[in-house]
Amino acid sequence: xxxxxxxxxxxxxxxxxxxxxxxxxxxxxxxxxxxxxxxxxxxxxxxxxxxxxxxxxxxxxxxxxxxxxxxxxxxxxxxxxxxxxxxxxxxxxxxxxxxxxxxxxxxxxxxxxxxxxxxx
Length: 120
What we know:
The chain is mainly α and 120 residues long. It has helices at 2-46, 51-73, 83-93, 100-110. The radius of gyration is 18 Å and the shape is elongated.
């Protein structure tokens, strides 16, 4: 029985070691997006950035986030199957993180006047 529990613990540790680099890379993607969002907000106040410029910059930021997330998990054949585990782990590490889908939906709602900046 002890051997069974040790085997389970070893599998969990091995899985965590395998998944951690992907989780860390995805976390860094969200960190970069937060920094970009903060820069956009600062530009709104400091340079009186127009709503169209905000939508353009946020659109580019979210496209970069999408590419970054894909790149973070591209090296693994297992990643597409455990993507929800990776995402949920990122949300545990960064509890206030909004998913890419949520960010895109909020962006599309805020920028509904600019069709060219709508994201799928």
